[in-house]
Write a structure and sequence with these properties.
It is built from 13 helices and 8 strands. By secondary structure, the chain is an alpha/beta fold. The protein has an 8-stranded mixed β-sheet with strand order 1-2-4-3-5-6-7-8, with helices on both faces.
Amino acid sequence: MPSRWRTALRALVAVVVVSAGLGGTVVWQNTYALREGKVVLHHRGQPLEGVLALPRHGRGPFGLVVFVHGDGPVDATHETFYRPLWEAFARSGYASLSFSKPGVGGSGGDWLDQSMDDRARETLAAVAWARGRPDVDGRRIGLWGASQAGWVLPKVAARDRGLQFVIAVSPAVNWLRQGRHNLLAELDRDGATPGEKETALRRRETVLNLLDRRASFAEYRAVTGDTDGMTSARWAFITRNHRSDATADLRAVHGTPLLLVLAGRDVNVDVADTEAAYRDLLPPASLAVAHYPGATHSLVDEDLERSDWRLTLTALFAPRRLYTDGFLTDQARFVDRLPPHRGGVAAAPETTKYPETRRP
């Protein structure tokens, strides 16, 4: 065999070995201490397909965390990014239940046809379905939701007084205030001039007037000239929901233990406004607030989220480290400290690395 062939063969073997090693690492890092099973809930004549993730060991009945998605066409696993959370809860003896949104995966319907009330009724149906399972402790069911779920979680908790807890991650209180904050925060981030900000705010007022008049999508396009990203279905969804406000529902939640999770680098939500509202509307004894100063809206550190290549490599080789330091531990710690059933509140997470974490 010529020497150059031997050299090429050695190089090929090295590539195969390295590739196999990296592949094994990816598989290992994306293997979780869970028992996942597909489930189907029929709600309003449509199937909702989802995943029930049980702790790896034990027969139950387990406590249960029901996941409520944020905006967009989210599948049951949120493209696998829920699994580190499911594993954290499983280590505390809690199963996790998550359904794909209507029109996503095998779920029927269309999530863009929903109001926040529709989403709340869907979540209540999921909780009722779970209470009928022998492997679920119906007295230890709570909700976990992020972002847009902030308008769903309080509705559900106000209507189902048997819920053990709620975890609200990066929620807003008022849709319109949230939208204005998001617009200005993104303009600031992108270095917009005062004139550009003024133009953007005027355009926003034009759009709000159209929404209040329930203008058609055709009129929206004629007035704004916008064809970037907005669709007729999305316009209808925004028209239906843009007046959402969680104030009344939060007031009705009363004493359900609630963990409010806020990110210091959140351009989507005004975290100061959210915290002030939650503290004003909820009994202090039932509210715990956890701050993560370096994290973005998605609870990923800002420097990681801004680097596409680092984000991709982390997702592949260390998916549990996508979330900001302490977040997964604090989620599990919150449920660990819950009273066995309703009545009382878990202590706020003691995240010593984040001195801004506050204890009510």
